[in-house]
Amino acid sequence: MKKLISRLTTILLVATLVLGCMTGCGNSNDSKTGNNSGSGETKTSSDIKIGLICLHDENSTYDLNFINSVQEVKKKLGLSDDQVIIKKNIPESNECREAAFDLADRGCNVIFADSFGHEPYILEAAAKYPDVQFCHSTGTLAHTEKKSNFHDAFSSIYEGRYLAGIAAGMKLNEMIQSGKITAEQAVIGYVGAYTYAEVISGYTSFYLGAKSVCPTVTMKVQFTGSWYDETAEKEAATKLISDGCVLISQHADSMGAPTACENAGVPNISYNGSTVDACPNTFIVSSRIDWAPYYEYVIKSVMEGKELAYDWVGTLADGSVKLTAVNTKAAAAGTQEAIDKAAEDLKAGKIHVFDTNNFTVGGKKLDSYMADVDTDDKYTPDTEVIKDGYFHESEYRSAPYFDLRIDGITTLNEMF
Amino acid sequence: MQMADTGKKIKEPLFHIVRRDNIVWWKAWIIRLLAILAALVFCGIVSFLLTKENPLRIYSVMFDGAFGTKRRVWSLAQNVAMLLCVSVAVAPAFKMRFWNVGGEGQVLAGGLASAACMILFGDSLPSAVLLIVMLIASILAGAIWAVIPAIFRARWNTNETLFTLMMNYIAIQLVSFFAYKWSVPKGSGQVGIINRTSHAGWLPVIGDMEYLLNIIIVLVLTVIMYVYLKYSKQGYEIAVVGESEKTAKYIGISVRKVILRTMIISGAICGLAGLLLVAGTDHTISRETAAGRGFTAIMVTWMAKFNPFFMVLTSLLIVFLEKGATEISTAFELNESFSEIITGIIIFFIIGCEFFIQYRVVFREKEAA
Q: What is the dihedral of CA A305, A140, A312, A206, to 10 degrees?
C-alpha cells in the first residue's frame, strides 16, 4: 500500500509539472501574432530570420550542400548568427511539421526545407502560418497549389549532368585511344536511388553528355532504393565495376560509390560537390546545385516585400548549376575546355540536352510526349513536353519530369 | 578445516558488495536523484572540455528545447505517448523474459495495415467504418507479426531474439516495397500525406488539441496494462514464466499458451501504436515511421522494471533527452553526435545507479586486535 501511494505521488507530481508547463510556458507564441505580412511591406536585413530544415546533417553531401548555401548567403547579406536557425536530422514525418511550426514560433519569416518528403508537412505549416514564407526544395505541388507563401524550387541540373557527362566521354575516349578498352567496352555504371524522374533525368542527361563526345558509349544503372545508404551504394558501385563498367557516376547522397571507385581505381563523376579529398586519384568532376542564388533571391524579395515565384528554376546562367574544379590528375586532357565550350552553347541555346535528334526510345525518334507534370496519384500524363525538337525539362515545373527510358541505357534492377 | 586455515591468510579486500535485502522506497529515490545529479555534473565537465560552452547554459537550452513553448510541450507529450505505447506493448513479453526485440517490425506491420486501408478504402468507406476497419487491421497485423516468432519459440524452442529481430527487417522491406508502389509522384519512394484533402482515415482531433486522442488512448492502455500485470491471473502467470519456466510447468501453467497469448497482446498493442502513428500523427507510412521506438522501448521497460507507471517517467526522461539534445545541436551548431554523447552518459548513470539500489558497498572494517 505504502509503495502504491509513493508511486502515485511521484506520478501526480510529474503530471502537475508537465500540465503546469503546458498552460504556463506557451504565452506570446500565437501563430497569428507575427508582423511579417507578405507583400508590400519592406524590411531591413535585421528583421530577417531564416530557418532551414535538413533531413540529415553535414555528413550527407546532399544536406551539406544546403547548409553551405545558407551560410554563404548569411555571410553575403551580413546576417548575424541568431538570424539563422538550422535544424538537422529532421525526418520526413510529423516531426518536420513540428520543426516548421517551431521555427515560425521563433520568429523566422523565411523557412527552407531540403528534402522531397518534407513537402506535404511544409504545405501544412504554410497553411497555418500565412505570414511566413515557406520554400521547399524539389517539390512538385507548389505550381498547382498556388499558395502565396508556399514555394518550390529546383535547378536545371540536367545541364550540369550533361556537362559532367562530357568529362566522362572524354575520359572514355582517352581509354579507347590508349588501347585500355575497345570502343564497345566504353560502358558507364550509374548508381541511382529510385526510378524517380529526378534520377532518370539525371542519368539520361549524363549519358547524353558522354555520348556527345564518345558515340559508342552505353550505360548500366543499378538502383539502391534509398537516397542515403552508404553500404548499398558502395555495393552497387562494386557490382557495376565487376560487371565491366569502366567509369562510375551516382545519384545518391553518401560517399559509398566514390569510395568504391577510389578503392578499385575506377574514375568517378560525383554529385552534390567535390569528393576529391577522399578520392584524389579517381575523382574527375562533380555537378551540383548551388542554392545560394535562390536563397538570396528569396531573402531579398522578402526584404523588399515582393511576391515570390511559386516554382523557381535556377539555371547555368544564374549560377545555380555549377561544376566543381576538374581534377586534372584523373581527367582527360582538354576536359575543362570542352566543358566550358558546351556550357556557353547551352547558355546561348545553341544546343539542348534532350534534343530529340540525339536519342531514341524503342528505336524510334520522339516527336510528342505527355508528361505527368501536375502531380496526382494516378500519374496522369497532362502536359506536352516535346516542342521545337527537344524535351522541355524543368520548364513547366521546377522538379524534373523526364522519365523516358532511352536506348543505350540498361537498368539492371527495376524494383525501386 | 583446510578451508578455514587458508581463509585466515587471505587479506580482506578494501570493500565488497553485499546484496540489499530490501531498500526503503525513499532511499532508492535518493540514490536515483544522486545519480542524475552526478550525471549532470559529469556531463557538464565533458561538455565544457569538448565545447568550451558554459554547462549551465547547455542545460537551460536542453530544457528550453523540451519545454520552452506550449507547442514543444505538446510535441514532447505526443512523443512520450508514442514511446510509452510501444513500451507498454513490449513490457509483458519482457516480464515473461521473452526477448521481443521485434517491436519495431510489429509497429510497422500495424502502421502498414492502417496505411493500406486508408489508401485502398479511403474513397469508398464512410469514415467511421474505415476507422474500425483500420483498427482491426492494424491490431491483427501487429499480433500476427508477433505471434509467428512466438509459435516457433513455443513449439520448437527457436531463439526469439534473432527471430523477432529478423521479422523487423522483413517488415521494413515490406514497407519499402509498398512505399515505392504507392509513391506520389511516381517512383519517388514517398507515399506523401495520405488523403491530404479528404482526411479519410485520419484519427479525429479533440477540439484543437491535435495529439490529445493519442495521449488519452495511451494513458488508458497504461493503466490497463498495470492492472493486468499486477492483479490479473494472466499477469501472475507471466511473472511466473518469467522467473522460471520449470516452476511454471510444475504448478500447472501451460508455458506454451502463456507465451502465445502474451505475444499476441504485445504485438496487438504494437499494431495499435502503428495505427496511432500513421492515422493519428504522420498520416503517411515510411520505413522511418517507427523511428527506432521498438528498440528504445526495451530500455524504457527495463529501466522501469516492467512497471507501466514508471514507464511514464522513463519514457519522459528519454524523450526529454532526445528533444533537449536536438536543441543543443541547433543552438550551438554542434553535430548531433555531441548530444548523443550527453544522452549516453546520463542513461549510463541512471542504469548504473540501479546497481547501488540492489547492492550496497561494505568497506573493510578495521581489523580487531
A: 160
Q: Tell me which CATH code domain A157-288+323-359+397-411 carries.
A: 3.40.50.2300
Distance from CA of B202 to the nearest CA of A (A): 13
| pLDDT level of residue B368 (50, 70, 90 thresholds) | low
Q: What is the pLDDT of residue B8?
A: 56
Q: What is the β-pairing status of strands A247-251 and B15-19?
A: unpaired
Tens of pLDDT along B107-166?
Answer: 999 999 999 999 999 999 999 999 999 999 999 999 999 999 999 999 999 999 999 999
Q: Which of B46, B112, B89, B63 is nearest to B279 (CA)?
A: B112
Facing B185 at nearest CB: one of A101, A197, A225: A197
Contact A91 B187 (CB under 8 A): no
Query: pLDDT band for position B366 (50/70/90)?
Result: low
Confirm or reject contact between A140 and chain B (CB < 8 A): yes
Closest CA to B202 of B273, B302, B131: B131
Give the whole-angstrom CA distance, residue A203 versus residue A167: 14
Residue with cell 565495376: A241
Cβ <8 Å between B69 and A105: yes
CA A411 vs CA A170, A222, A352, B131: distances in Å: 23, 6, 24, 41
- C-alpha cell of A258? 566514390
Residue B59 C-alpha cell reads as 542545460
Residue B188: which of A14, A85, A196 has the nearest Cβ? A196
Instruction: Give the pLDDT confidence score for residue A415 in this predicted structure.
Output: 61
A198: which chain B residues are within 8 Å (Cβ-Cβ)?
Answer: 188
> A-chain residues within 8 Å CB-CB of B289?
93
Instruction: Specify the amino acid at residue A238.
Output: T
Domain boundaries, chain A: 157-288+323-359+397-411
Which position has the higher pLDDT, B336 or A406?
A406
A120 and B193 within 8 Å at the Cβ level: the answer is yes
pLDDT digits (tens, 9 = 90+) for A297-322: 999 999 999 999 999 999 999 999 99
Residues 6+ apart with CB under 8 A from B270: B86, B89, B90, B103, B106, B107, B109, B110, B142, B145, B146, B294
CB-closest option in A18, A58, A196 to B189: A196
Distance from A41 to chain B by nearest Cα, in Å?
28
Split at pLDDT 50, 70, 90, the class of A8 is very low
Residues of A in contact with B196 (CB under 8 A): 120
Separation CA A84–CA A64 (nearest Å): 15
**What does the pLDDT look like over A23-69, one tens digit per residue?**
434 333 333 333 334 445 788 888 899 999 999 888 888 899 999 99
Q: Is the pLDDT of residue B40 over 80?
A: yes
Which of A89, A107, A143, A149 minimizes the C-alpha distance to A124?
A149
Q: Do A91 and B291 touch (CB under 8 A)?
A: yes
Instruction: Please say whether the beta carbons of A62 and A228 come within 8 A.
Output: yes
What are the residue boundaries of the structural domains of chain B, listed by start? Answer: 83-320
User: For residues B2-40, b (16+ Cβ closer than 10 Å) or e, as one string?
Assistant: eeeeeeeeeeeeeeeeeeeeeeeeeebeeebeebeeebb
Which residues 231-290 of chain A have a CB within 8 Å of chain B?
none
Paired residues of A286 in beta bridges: A270
Reported pTM: 0.86
ipTM given for this complex: 0.87
Which chain B residue is nearest to residue A400, measuring alpha carbons? B185
Q: CA-CA distance, A289 to A322, in Å (whole number)?
A: 6
Residue among B25, B72, B288 whose CB faces A102 most closely: B72
A411 beta partners: A221
Are B180 and A25 a contacting pair at CB < 8 A?
no
pLDDT tens by residue, B155-198:
999 999 999 999 999 999 999 999 999 998 888 888 999 999 99
